[in-house]
Amino acid sequence: MKPRVVVARVLPPAVMQRAQEEFDALLPPPAGFTLDELVAAAASHGAAALVVTGGVKLDAAALARLPETVKLVATCSVGFDHIDVPAAKARGIAVTNTPDVLNAATADLAFLLMLGAARRASEYERIMRAGWRKGFGFAENLGHDLTGKTLGIFGMGRIGRVLARRARAFDMNIIYHNRTRLDPALEDGAEYVDSLEAMLPRCDVLSLNAPGGSGTAKVMNRETFAQMKKGAIFVNTARGSLVDEDALIEALSSGHLFAAGLDVFASEPAFDLRLAELPNVFLTPHVASATVETRDAMGHRALDNVAAIAAGTAPRDAL
User: Fold this and answer.
1) Is 239 in the active site?
2) Which of 73, 77, 252, 313 is the 20 to 30 Å CA partner of 221?
3) The domain 103-283: what is its CATH number?
4) 304 with 101: CB under 8 angstroms?
5) Considering 4, 161, 286, 295, which one is annotated as catalytic?
């Protein structure tokens, strides 16, 4: 018998086709399963595994409602803060994620946000959509070059290192802060700074690439934004929980920060609309991994983990 799987959200066509071909898969409706529907589907289908996305919240209470047949929750994401992993393990449910396959796409979007913020892309686009009938003077509406600037990366993991490679093509200087220093081969010429506070005053651009967690909640706040250079650029493709958005809005409104590029927010999708009202903020709706190639790869990686569990072997990406 094929392993029984419930897919909680609509995945790319190639992934859905594989799920049907290789597994006894119960596929979701177009809007996806609600939590109540997912629990009921897992029970009625006798599912051994659930394939979910970051939008499916499985806290301890939700996990307790799952039938005993469920032995794996495979999330199509790198982040797993939507799943209570200790509670899952306590119930004998393995949890896997999909690292590595979205590194390039996320780094690309981080660089898009960086360029968009530096070159005032949001302002220029609004001017064009409003009809652009008045020319600008030689010294008006100027952005900033990235060439020769210093990029500070907070969280020099897989994505941070790919971003650093992109930045080197723009002749940027790379500094970074991690909890621990990388091996020199992984640094690839980047300079380690032993504290965030020591790094911030040196950054022309700061990119957050650290995972969320209790130790990094609102790590960017009034005090840390004040430590940044006046006129610096702030980019976040990591977690909205890393940022005190009131403090960010103040720094942008006062001109202390030149601009920001943001893909993640404290509340999603109901983000703080004050950010949308600021002309010097370049915004995207949490889409860092949203390419056909990357989402296909994420879905297939999740199914690889399901296949491993079904075969009685350890999944590649067990948390």
Assistant:
1) yes
2) 77
3) 3.40.50.720
4) no
5) 286
Give 80-120 pLDDT, tens digit per residue.
989 999 999 999 999 999 999 999 999 999 999 999 999 99
- Give the C-alpha separation, 98 to 305, whole Å: 9
Catalytic residue among 177, 239, 295, 301: 239
268 is catalytic: yes
Q: Which residue is associated with the tokens 């889409």?
A: 287
Domain ranges of the chain: 4-101+292-310, 103-283
User: Which residues are registered as beta bridge partners of 175?
Assistant: 152, 191
* Low-confidence spans in the chain with pLDDT less than 70: 213-214
Q: Three-class SS string for 135-179?
A: CCCCCCCCCCCCCCCEEEEECCCHHHHHHHHHHHCCCCEEEEECC
**Marked catalytic residue, from 125, 191, 268, 277:** 268
4-101+292-310: which CATH number, 3.40.50.720, 3.40.50.300, 3.40.50.2300, 3.65.10.10?
A: 3.40.50.720
A 10 A CB-CB count for 291 gives 15
Percent of the chain at pLDDT > 70 equals: 99
**259-308 pLDDT, tens per residue?**
999 999 999 999 999 999 999 999 999 999 999 999 999 999 999 999 99
